[in-house]
Design brief:
The protein is mostly helical. The protein has three domains: 1-44; 48-110, no CATH class; 111-143, no CATH class. The chain contains seven helices and two strands. The chain has helices at 15-30, 51-55, 65-70, 72-84, 94-102, 107-110, 113-129; strands at 2-7, 35-40. The longest helix is centred in the C-terminal third of the chain and has 17 residues, at 113-129. The chain starts with a strand and ends in a 14-residue tail after the last helix. The mean pLDDT is 83.
Length: 143
């Protein structure tokens, strides 16, 4: 089995880092043959999501060397996640994860268009009408 240990606090002496270190040590003792992957998000520089990043959203076979390099860290992080995946009922592999992520990062999320902006405005209006959102929301979109 593989344990993915993620730290995210910027403070090296934080309580969450101490707790995760204790958990990892207990895990290592209980499961001496297991692999432990440690990822420190405070020291991992993630590239900004830009037009260049979105241009890499294509079939791997047609990506340029520059696009593959741009995605190298993303691929590494996804591989860590997949190596630690333990749910056998889901069958999560790289293809399934890519399909899942594509629901959130796709042409529609690059530009909602008039139809998408109207849908979001309608969602907030209906939420207010149903009493779920206490105040009317005037949705404004960045250009």
């Amino acid at each position: 089995m593989t344990l993915l240990h993620i730290d995210s606090s910027a403070r090296q002496s934080s309580t969450s880092r101490r707790l995760t270190a204790q958990f990892v040590e207990a895990w290592r003792t209980a499961h001496p043959g297991d692999t432990i992957i440690t990822r420190d998000l405070a020291t991992t520089t993630l590239p900004a999501i830009t037009d260049d990043w979105m241009a890499t959203y294509s079939m791997p076979s047609v990506r340029t060397p520059a696009q593959r390099q741009y995605l190298a860290l993303s691929d590494e992080l996804i591989d860590e996640l997949l190596r630690a995946e333990t749910r056998t009922d889901v069958g999560l592999g790289r293809e399934m994860l890519d399909r899942y992520l594509a629901m959130y990062a796709n042409d529609d999320t690059l530009d909602y268009g008039a139809r998408g902006r109207e849908a979001i405005s309608t969602l907030f209006r209906r939420g207010h009408e149903a009493g779920v959102i206490p105040h009317a929301v005037n949705v404004r979109f960045a250009p």
